[in-house]
Amino acid sequence: MQLFRALFIHFLKIAIIFAIIASVWKMSDIALPYLQSPYPTNIDFLQDKQAEVQLTHWLIAFYIHITTSAIALAMGLLQFSSSILQQFPRVHRLAGMIYVGSILLLAAPTGLVMGFYGEGGILAQIAFVCQALAWWGTTYMAYHHIRQHNIALHGAWIIRSYAVAMSAISLRGISYLLYWLREWNGWVCPDTYAILCHPTSYIFIAWFSWIFNWLVAEVLIRMGILRYYGIKTA
């Protein structure tokens, strides 16, 4: 049983790392068009945010958010390499400092600003605000516990933090899934299930994308994934 558990954890970690790499690449691919001169404000996501584009503080928050979020995802990826953790601890610490700093100082606060203007009405906006606060809070807890030299709690909270960070990818993935379900079954809104149609679908996605990720993180922590990194837990 222990051998099966160890093999399962090893397989699960490889699958997670692969998913994270794909997600980092996808997030960078999404952000890149916005960051190329002449910095278009009428493409993709911004096409539906033309009122917000006129707000200087929102536009500044948007550019900072997409840039620092991509950096955080990339730096967070290095945190989950057991080889780097054990053989190159200085690289692990440097990546961790960049990850924590980019979130606490830039990515989460700008995400909070954008959350107040989120699509889907007040319920979706509350979800995005809560997500930004959860991202900041989990990251701060990870930072706090490493300052206290509590490796086990630091590891648990950094997993939670990165799970919330990945909600941007989850949001897009669930959106594509719901779109595929409508197309596959020939369902036309609003004459179908409310959860598959806007704005109900977007409210559902806004909450589910980060809460589900957090739940997955809790499952992994309780399954003992920290022991894979040689971290002793109580």
Describe this structure in words.
There is one protein chain. This protein has 234 residues and is mainly α. The protein has one domain (2-229). The chain is 75% helix and 0% strand. It contains nine helices and no strands. Helix 7 packs antiparallel against helix 9 (200-223). It is globular, with a radius of gyration of 19 Å.
* Major beta sheet summary: none
Weakly predicted, low-confidence segments: none
Number of helices: 9
Helix content: over 70%
The number of domains: 1
Question: Helix-strand pattern, N to C?
Answer: HHHHHHHHH
Brief digest:
This protein has helices at residues 2-31, 50-53, 56-79, 82-87, 89-115, 122-147, 151-165, 167-185, 200-223. It is mostly helical and 234 residues long. It has one domain (2-229).
Question: How do the strands and helices of this protein lay out in sequence?
Answer:
Blueprint: H1 2-31, H2 50-53, H3 56-79, H4 82-87, H5 89-115, H6 122-147, H7 151-165, H8 167-185, H9 200-223
Helix pairs in contact: 1-3, 3-5, 5-6, 6-7, 6-9, 7-9, 8-9
